[in-house]
Amino acid sequence: MRNNNGYRNLIAWQKSNLLAHFIYDLTAKFPKDELFGMTSQMRRAALSVCANIAEGYSRRGLKDRRHFYQMAMGSLTELEFFIDFAYERKFISHVDYEKILEIHMETARVLSGLLKST
């Protein structure tokens, strides 16, 4: 049986955790009137990626595990929309946008590999 923290060894979880921290730091600079809008939505989507990877890891059946990894990919795609929208609204600088896209793309690549291996 796996230990309770085994998901932390997954590169997909490590990348998504980095992404979530970056999103938290980034959204802290958003306009205050977006606290219950974009800020909240982006943070929830970012955390959902990590949480679904962790929950998927804990599942014994491949079908069940794959379902949670697919949910993580869905949240990652949702987050991509919010990143683009925030950039278009000028809530994110070009430098931060490039950095977050790099982290996002790497997370998507690794998560896609995890999905294929499941």
SSE blueprint and pairings:
Elements: H1 11-27, H2 35-58, H3 62-88, H4 94-117
Helix pairs in contact: 1-2, 1-4, 2-3, 3-4
Walkthrough of the structure:
With 118 residues, this protein is mainly alpha-helical. It is 78% helix and 0% strand. The chain has 4 helices and no strands. It has helices at residues 11-27, 35-58, 62-88, 94-117. Helix 1 packs antiparallel against helix 2. The model has no long low-confidence stretch (mean pLDDT 95).
Q: What is the H/E string?
A: HHHH
How would you describe the shape?
Answer: elongated
Mean pLDDT: 95
- The structural class is mainly alpha
Task: Provide a count of the helices.
Answer: 4
User: Helix coverage percent of residues?
Assistant: over 70%
The CATH C-level class name: Mainly Alpha
How many discrete domains? 1
Distance between the termini: 17 Å
Can you count the beta strands? 0
Shape-level CATH architecture = Up-down Bundle
Question: What low-confidence regions span 5 or more consecutive residues with pLDDT below 50?
Answer: none
According to CATH, the fold-level topology is de novo design (two linked rop proteins)
How much strand? under 5%
